[in-house]
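Deliverable D4.2, example record:
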Amino acid sequence: MTDDYRGASVRPSASKAGRPRNAVSREQFLDAAVTLFSRQGVSATTLAHIAREVGVTSAMVHYHFANRDQLLDAVAGERIMPFLDTMWGLITPESLADPAQVLRDTAACIFDHSVRLPWLAPMWLADTASPNGELGQRIMHLLPVDKIQQLTEGIKAAQASGRLDPRLQPQMIFMSMVGLVLLPFATLDSCSQVHPDADFSTEALRHHVMSSVDNLLCPPR
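Output generated by the structure prediction step:
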């Protein structure tokens, strides 16, 4: 993938000549925000927490964001939506000829982004996926309802033809698949503590996640 996404963990770099030591970019504050959102929750994170994470005063945050709502808008628009746009872009009239493959490709897309963006899974499950979440509220009205409906109709057709399990609720298959991908990432630390000798490498997780998705999508035998 060639999308330019920022990393999850941020600390100010050494100051350059002629640049104030506490001069921090807007992107660094957004990176610090998503790191804290994934670690302690969105609602529990203040601008002061974000400033402390970066290592500057709150005044520096306000230089880029007038208030917390403005920062949340920026996180939704500049950190979450690029990922969602990539994911929803997989749903096209051509790809819907095989909705099961669309779902597998979407699962792979979410997996790759979760590897690159360690904050994505815990923040998504804690806030973004909820219509009551502060970030969830911001992206809810941006969802491509037409594409979601087209995918649902494609799933129904695949169920009718025996390519997908007809016992599954077509309106829930997509979100069930998303959960199969994101939940292992969101609970990885806990699982590692309970099972310290288990293989939780990226490749092992990929095999587990994609096998789980295949089992979900496999028609009954």
